[in-house]
């Protein structure tokens, strides 16, 4: 394992005793998509991490983590509605934006379920990383890692997309409830942000990767279809009226790192 102090990243190298897992390989590729922000799409394996600045989505959404994010956002954008949507955007990216990036890029998925996700905060109450407790990956039958340890082979692409959406919903419903306890939040706008996160990944990941547009668009639309079939309006437009004060662009960049 090599440590890069300039990136605060560890690059996992395969050895005879500990070969790289499917998640290791995928996250190496995800980190390479954005050299300036290598943590934008990748996740950490929590077994390899300390717990400083990490919190569990399952255990801590009822605590002070989301209120602290909201309070910090209000310092930049003193409008409760806009601040809530910025917090929602950051958490939605952690839950579904990251895993969608991997699905559209490689046809793989880690588990984005509520009990599996962890969130890492920076010193300014922004999300700068996410992690998984269980690093088992869902892969397609033609994947080179199909049948390998810490993988589950799903029968087809549609099954992968349905499973990913089903697991994401356990986290997204909990995130919505956590924000709604702070301030009224419009459900259509929240789910519209989820749709935007999926479309954003399906659009930009092929550009960053230098190809794969057709597969990315097909998988992205399949994810949206699965959300709609589950009864959530991800194709609704999320419009946020931004006040002419504060620095919303900087706040969003800080929250959605």
What do these coordinates show?
The chain has 257 residues and is of the alpha/beta class. The chain has a domain at 52-127 and 153-255. It is built from eight helices and eight strands, in the order ββαββαααββββαααα. Strands 3-6-5-4 form a four-stranded mixed beta sheet. The chain has a two-stranded antiparallel ribbon with strand order 1-2. A hairpin with a 5-residue loop joins strand 5 and strand 6 (127-132). Helix 3 (65-76) packs across helix 4 and helix 6 (187-209) packs antiparallel against helix 7 (213-229). It is globular, with a radius of gyration of 18 Å.
Spell out the blueprint of helices and strands.
Elements: E1 2-4, E2 9-11, H1 22-33, E3 44-45, E4 54-56, H2 57-60, H3 65-76, H4 80-106, E5 117-121, E6 127-132, E7 137-139, E8 151-153, H5 157-180, H6 187-209, H7 213-229, H8 248-255
Parallel strand pairs: 3-6, 7-8
Antiparallel strand pairs: 1-2, 4-5, 5-6
């Amino acid at each position: 394992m090599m440590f890069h102090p300039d990136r605060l990243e560890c690059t996992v190298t395969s050895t005879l005793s500990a070969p790289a897992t499917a998640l290791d390989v995928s996250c190496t590729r995800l980190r390479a998509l954005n050299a300036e922000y290598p943590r934008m799409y990748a996740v950490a394996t929590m077994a390899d991490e300390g717990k400083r600045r990490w919190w569990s989505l399952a255990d801590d959404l009822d605590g002070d983590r989301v209120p602290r994010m909201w309070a910090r956002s209000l310092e930049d954008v003193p409008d409760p509605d806009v601040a809530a949507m910025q917090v929602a955007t950051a958490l939605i990216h952690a839950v579904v934006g990251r895993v969608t990036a991997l699905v559209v890029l490689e046809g793989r998925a880690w588990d984005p379920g509520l009990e599996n996700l962890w969130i890492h905060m920076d010193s300014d109450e922004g999300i700068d990383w996410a992690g998984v407790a269980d690093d088992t990956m869902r892969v397609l039958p033609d994947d080179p890692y199909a049948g390998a340890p810490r993988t589950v082979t799903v029968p087809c692409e549609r099954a992968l997309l349905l499973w990913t959406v089903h697991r994401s919903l356990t986290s997204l419903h909990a995130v919505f409830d956590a924000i709604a306890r702070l301030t009224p939040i419009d459900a259509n706008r929240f789910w519209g942000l989820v749709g935007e996160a999926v479309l954003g990944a399906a659009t930009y990941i092929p550009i960053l990767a230098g190809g794969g547009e057709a597969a990315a668009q097909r998988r992205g639309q399949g994810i949206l279809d699965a959300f709609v079939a589950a009864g959530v309006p991800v194709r609704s437009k999320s419009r946020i009226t931004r006040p002419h004060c504060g620095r919303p662009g900087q706040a969003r960049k800080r929250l959605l790192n």
